[in-house]
Amino acid sequence: MLNLMFKRKKFLRVWEFPGFLTWTFFFFGFLYIPIVILVIYSFNSSKFAMIWTGFSFRWYEKLLTNDDMQQAALNSLYVAFVAAPCATAIATLTALVVVRGGSFKSKEFSNGLVTLPLMVPEIVTAVATLIFFAFIGINLGLINVMIAHTVFCIPFAYMPIKASLEAMDPTLEVAARDLYSDRNSTFRYITLPLLMPGILSGFMLAFVISIDDFIITLMVAGGGSTTLPVYIYSMIKMGVTPEVNAISTLMLAFSIILVTGYWVFSKKS
Amino acid sequence: MNIQGENKSRNNLIGLLPLWIVMGVFMIGPLIVMAFVSIMESNSYGGIHLKFDLSGYRQILFDTNLFDEMEFNPAYLIIIGRSFLLAVAATIISLIIGFPVAYYISRQKDSVKNILIFLVTIPFWTNLLIRTFAWIIILGKDGVIENSFGFIGIIDDDDSLNLMYTNTAILIGLVYSYIPLMVLPIYSSMEKLDVRLIEAASDLYSTRINLIFKIILPLTLPGIIGGSILVFVPCLGAFIAPDLLGGGKKLLLGSLIQFQFAYARNWPFGAAIAMVLLALIVTILYLNARVNRRHEQNA
Q1: Are residues A132 and A163 in the same domain?
Q2: pLDDT band for position B27 (50/70/90)?
Q3: Which of B173, B171, B150, B172 is nearest to B160 (CA)?
Q4: C-alpha B252: how far from its chain's center?
């Protein structure tokens, strides 16, 4: 019996291809080894980023005393905490109208308008926004960055919200209306709670996108409104030091924990 | 569904207004202003003179020589060509690497599938700048590759392979950055693939190679085209990979545009190149939409 099983294993089923497993294995290696190397080197005690001399936390300790970096990290959080809620609110309203508003003239147009920031190359959006702010003379530091991020985050907030609205059972709302619930309370007690997971995931994606955005911030942010990615960029440009590895590791960990947490949460519910 | 006509269209309008205002003012507005700036005269301190002038576009093809004559200058055409070639190469390599991966993942059982797809998407949610920076540690002078080669004894300690600041380095960076965008759409096409078709072909003595090229590939073509566009478009305007791994020596469209605004301060020229990039991408998206429409009509 056991012998037979082993023998059978040698034959591939018709839809299996030899080598695809190995290929996939190497693909994930390609995807993750650079990240792993970056993390390992952030614990390197050597002053030179590339040469391994021993394990230490010294670069993380150094981050604690780096005021510029902490200010940049705070700026990133300020921007994300303004841009992500704004983008989520606009995305939610748009999704409600596009999915529930029946057929109306500007539906296709609005649906396309939301995804516009995904079509236009980021560098073009970045310089266009830079020119625009300079041209009309708006120079409000971080607020400029917040506006640019809100625009860019809308499509990312929109996708999960629209998807969860489309998956929602409309008969629940009809049932509530049949039971003499008025339009506002139907929305408040039926639609909104059912939509909340979608809104939350939209918010989270927008938040991560805002925290990670680099090119648009690089062009739009003025002197005093550096965010963390822009700060990391200037550190890399000045020369690769292990401090960059340490702060990069922290940023990676932040994004990965947030996204994984969300994934586990959404799988459970 | 339960709101009366007039009331409903008013509600729709109120719901869409924030989007229209924000996108109109801060997305379409900047693009219009950029188009306007691209046909203005440049001001040497950055910014523009309000005077109609096509020199921004002319500069892409021609230089003015000492005698004030126009001279054909292919330098920027070469940059556009190089960006195009690198984007095409990155797309093809991503497709070759990504296609078997997408197939393999799609044939797993659901629990494994979910985890693998999640692992493909994680890099997308992490910082692109940092992920590209990781390659400096690997490819750079005295980096991981040179060190391990030196350790084995393939190269001397003082030698350098000069991996950084090459087209190859940029290409690795581009593929690494955008390959998840290739795998995901192909995977979702493969999900819908009917395994019985493969079995039928196999029963009729199709070889494994033919299974791939005559059955799986044509049936997942929509995903392949979608993935290729998702990879090609950001590659064409990429800034981070050419800047960090190309060291700014190998200018590409994205880094050229950024350079005009950050250092050269020639706004109309920078805006003109950005318009060219935008035009290239709009053309590609338009062609894709037309092909898709024809595909749907045939289906």
Answers
A1: yes
A2: very high
A3: B150
A4: 12
User: Looking at beta carbons, which residues of chain A come within 8 Å of B212?
Assistant: 17
Do A54 and A154 share a domain, yes or no?
A: no
Q: Record the pTM.
A: 0.88
Tell whether A70 and A38 lie within a shared domain: no
Let me know whether A139 and A215 are in one domain: yes
Last residue of a domain, one of A9, A41, A59: A59
Does A260 sit within 8 Å of B122, measured CB to CB? yes
A66 and A144 together in one domain: yes
Which tokens go with A112?
Answer: 């396309």
Q: Which domain holds residue A186?
A: 61-268
Flag whether A224 is in a domain: yes
Instruction: Say which residues have a Cβ less than 8 Å from residue A238's Cβ, sequence separation at least 6.
Output: none
Q: In this complex, which of B118, B127, B262 lies closest to A251 when CB atoms are compared?
A: B127
Q: How many domains does chain A have?
A: 2
Domains of chain B: 94-227 (1.10.3720.10)
User: What is the nearest CA distance from A4 to chain B, expressed in angstroms?
Assistant: 23
Residues of A (120-179) whose Cβ lies below 8 Å from B = 120-132, 134-136, 147-148, 150-151, 154, 170, 173-174, 177
Candidates B40, B80, B127: best to mutate against A (most CBs of A within 10 A) is B127
The ranges of chain A with pLDDT < 50 are 1, 4-5, 7-9
Q: How confident is the model at residue B1 (pLDDT cuts 50, 70, 90)?
A: very low
Identify the CATH number of the domain in which residue A231 sits. Answer: 1.10.3720.10
The conformation of residue A44, written as its DSSP 8-state character, comes to B
Quick check: B178 pLDDT over 80?
A: yes
pLDDT for B299: 61
- Chain B touched by A219 (CB under 8 Å): yes
Q: Taking a C-beta distance cutoff of 8 angstroms, is the pair B117, B105 a contact?
A: yes
Decide: residue B258, CB within 10 A, 0-12 exposed, 13-18 middle, 19+ buried.
Answer: buried
Q: Residues B86-121: pLDDT tens digits?
A: 999 999 999 999 999 999 999 898 899 999 999 999
Do residues A100 and A28 share a domain?
no
* One-letter amino acid for residue A252 of the chain: L
**Chain-chain contact of B18 with A93 (C-beta, under 8 angstroms):** yes
Q: Is residue A3 part of a domain?
A: no
Q: Closest to B129 (Cβ–Cβ): which among A14, A24, A232?
A: A232
Diameter of chain A measured on Cα atoms: 80
Could you tell me which residues come within 8 angstroms of residue B291 by beta carbon, excluding any fewer than 6 positions away?
B225
- Unique residue bearing structure tokens 């560098």: A123
A182 and A212 in a single domain? The answer is yes
Angstrom CA distances, B256 to B52, B224, B250, stand at 23, 30, 10
> Under an 8 A CB cutoff, do B19 and A205 touch?
no
A6 falls within a domain: no
Final residue in a domain of this structure, among A27, A59, A91? A59
Assess whether A41 and A68 both reside in one domain. no
Which residues 108-137 of B are in CB contact (within 8 Å) with A?
114, 116, 118-123, 125-131, 133-137
Residues of B in contact with A110 (CB under 8 A): 16, 19-20
Asked, for residue A176, whether it belongs to a domain, the answer is yes
Taking CB atoms and an 8 Å limit, are A35 and B147 in contact across chains? no
Pick among B1, B19, B43, B252 to test the A interface (most A CBs inside 10 A)? B19
